[in-house]
Amino acid sequence: MDHLGALGAFVQAAETRSFTEAGRRLGVSSSAIGKAVARLEERLGVRLFHRSTRAITLTAEGSLFLQRCHRVFAELEVAERELTQAAGKPQGKLRISLPQLGVRLMPHLIAFQQAYPAIELELDFSDRLVNVIEEGFDAVMRIGEVQDSRLVMRALSGFGHRLVAAPSYLAQHGMPSHPLELSTHACLHYRYPTSGKLDPWPLVERGEPLHLDLPQTAVTNAIDPLLAMAEAGQGIACLPDFVVADAIAKGVLLALLAPYVEDRRTLSILWPSSRQPLPKIKAFVNFIAERLATPMA
Questions:
Q1: Cα 28 from Cα 22, distance rounded (Å)
Q2: In angstroms, rounded to a whole number, what is the distance separating the alpha carbons of residues 113 and 39?
Q3: Rounded Cα distance, 164 and 53, in Å
């Protein structure tokens, strides 16, 4: 195998933890994979794998080298797509990472699919901080400011939060008139799945933050279950305004303590600054930016 082929053999063996499976994927024998990896180790002067009769596992050096190889192949894939892509025509696979709240953007994403049928959209919904370049994403959408000199950022829109509860809950437990009264209510919270921290409720009084120890009647790491519980009358929830806008308009939920709730969060789209933006990335950024030119609520 040539040098690039040896890197491919190493990556497949590292990801499958098997020379046999790596060979099957590449259409060569397991011994060919083993020899390619051995020559690579000899050239680098380090061991990339711990070998046993049952399995292979990466060494510390192997893990670091795997990260670099992923970056090499990601850049190679981008270069190939740039050369083969029809001039100026948005097409090909577009990998986008979005926060979990991005599920609420599905109407816009479906509209983008309909407008650009030649683009194959691959969506990853996660609140974890992905490595855009090394994981091969074309762009990411994130809440808040992201400081990374390798990325270009474009602000899309903003949203705030509202405290909401169902009329049935309020009829039974009463309408709070001050944040301090929340201590006697059922409070439904969102927990960030990556950090494990609760999302604090943005409560203020006379412009100063209120840090209250609120009851944790229920905690979820996704927005939709929290919305469902609030609509079912299980308690008070703090949810993005664009998530609860329809429910409030229909009277399914009521907004509470509006003078005491104050925050504004930004939604941005980012893509690698080291790359010449492909037509598909330009099309996606411009389309979404136009759709979200006004606040999402």
A1: 8
A2: 46
A3: 59
49 pLDDT more than 70: yes
Per-residue pLDDT for 293 more than 70? no
Q: How many CB atoms lie within 10 A of CB 235?
A: 20
Q: What is the CA radius of gyration of the chain?
A: 25
The residue ranges of DSSP E strands in the chain, in sequence order, are: 49-51, 56-58, 92-98, 119-125, 139-143, 151-159, 161-165, 187-190, 204-205, 208-209, 218-220, 236-240, 254-256, 265-272
Average pLDDT over residues 133-159: 80
Q: What is the mean pLDDT of the chain?
A: 87
**Tokens for 212?**
């209250």
Q: How many CA atoms lie within 13 A of 81 on its CB side?
A: 22
Token pair in block for residue 220:
């979820």
pLDDT on residue 122: 93
Question: Do residues 265 and 238 touch, judged by C-beta distance below 8 A?
Answer: no
Q: Which residue has the tokens 């602000």?
A: 155
